[in-house]
Specification:
- Helix content is 16%, strand content 39%.
- It is of the alpha+beta class.
- The strands form seven sheets. It has a seven-stranded mixed sheet with strand order 17-25-22-18-21-20-19.
- Strand 1 and strand 2 form a beta hairpin.
- It is elongated.
């Protein structure tokens, strides 16, 4: 029976198949990214420990990019604290005080603020050693933010805002509305636009006709030669994905534009510096604090680093506050697990750092916010060079045009030896 399947557009832009079965050909035609690329499934089995960044990106799946230039957006959480830029003297206007901070725009009417280094007061007028001063935001204008103290210095039916030093940290807490409030200050998160270029990665494999007698379309079989070529290709991609420099340049020989992808090393939003002489367990705890706080990231992240950094981590004696040594298999990679009160790191040696002259450095990556964009998914093309009169060989060309981007940059940390 003939297959007269027809694709019909739906009401909301979707597509439906009528008068016939749903086939892989129709699936690829209507939704090219629906079916998992079998090539990717086999690629991730080839020496995954050597190319962890490429491995993570393939296991997570890629988004299709409509062009070689990828525009994407980063969005982070609203700042959780501000610091005073002027000292606040005990309020002379009764219960109200005008404060100025390094980021007044992040504060809104009805916000409550906790003053980090100033104690609150008890009803009898003495300092409360067990609580911090809390402020309530009444209004905001160009001259500053007007607040009143929740647990300030008690007075004649009014609570006075006490002295607050310059540089004091104010932690933004929840909003406090009144009974008749219907609306509150608006909150909109506006993402920041960023851009990267897809780079065309290629590798060519040739076999002589005597070695491979059949001159035909080549099936994807993992021969030793193909495996070695794919490994070399992935290793080169790993270096670009990590340390590449984003550029669009003109090749005067080929008379074409070359797109070079930018690496995720430069995209990370945080940097943790350490010195070799002072590298202790306390350093590791500080590093994990930097990685797991102050961002919207997950509590399980990946640390890849050069042999120098990994060696220092291995030499440390860990206590119950931080544990290491358990092996965990994830994404086809065997990691060493490192646990602390801040979160869990999956640690792996990456010789790419050594090869790029960064043996003492490393990077903490949040896999949840590592995104791959693919303009040309990894694919193969058979070249019949014998028929073309070039060589008596069959050739297979591997091609991928892709890039990696970090969403929520502050969820990722560069580790740099000073």
């Amino acid at each position: 029976m003939e297959n007269d399947a027809t694709i019909v557009n739906g009401v909301e832009g979707g597509q439906h198949v009528v008068n016939g079965p749903l086939t892989t050909e129709i699936s690829n035609q209507v939704s090219a990214g629906l079916l998992v690329n079998e090539i990717d499934r086999q690629i991730v089995k080839i020496r995954p420990m050597a190319t962890p960044v490429d491995q993570l990106s393939r296991c997570a799946g890629a988004k299709r990019a409509g062009s070689m230039t990828v525009d994407y957006y980063n969005v982070d959480t609203k700042p959780t604290s501000v610091r005073t830029t002027k000292a606040i003297v005990k309020s002379s206007d009764g219960e109200r005080a005008k404060i100025n901070t390094d980021n007044n725009d992040s504060l809104d009417v009805s916000d409550t603020l906790l003053v980090e280094g100033v104690h609150g007061y008890l009803p009898d007028g003495s300092e409360d050693e067990d609580s911090l001063l809390m402020l309530y935001v009444l209004s905001k204008d160009d001259s500053g933010v007007t607040v009143m103290a929740v647990n300030g210095i008690p007075g004649n039916e009014k609570t006075t805002v006490p002295d607050i030093p310059v540089g004091e940290r104010l932690i933004r807490m929840g909003r406090a509305a009144t009974e008749l409030d219907v609306q509150t200050a608006q909150f909109e998160a506006l993402p920041q636009k960023a851009q990267n270029y897809c780079q065309i990665f290629k590798m060519q494999i040739e076999q002589s006709t005597l070695q491979k007698m059949a001159n035909k379309e080549v099936d994807w079989t993992m021969t030793d030669q193909e495996e070695a070529a794919i490994y070399d290709m992935r290793l080169g991609m790993e270096k670009n994905f990590l340390f590449g420099s984003k550029c669009k340049m003109w090749d005067p020989v080929k008379k074409e534009t070359v797109f070079l992808t930018g690496g995720i090393w430069a995209q990370a939003g945080k940097t943790f510096d350490y010195t070799e002489a002072d590298f202790t367990q306390d350093t590791v705890i500080d590093m994990m604090r930097e990685a797991f706080t102050g961002n919207a990231g997950s509590k399980r992240k990946v640390l890849i680093g050069g042999s120098g950094l990994i060696g220092r981590l291995n030499k440390l004696d860990y206590t119950k506050m931080i544990s290491a040594g358990e092996n965990v298999a994830k994404w086809g990679i065997d990691f060493t697990e490192m646990r602390s009160k801040f979160g869990i790191l999956y640690v792996l040696l990456s010789e790419v750092f050594d090869e790029c002259g960064m043996a003492d450095n490393g990077m903490i990556i949040d896999p949840e916010y590592l995104q791959k964009y693919s303009h040309l998914p990894f694919g193969t093309e058979a070249l019949n060079l014998k028929t073309a009169g070039v060589r008596n060989t069959d050739a297979l060309v591997l091609t991928e045009a892709s890039c990696l981007v970090l969403r929520y940059p502050k969820a990722h940390v560069r580790i740099v030896k000073e």
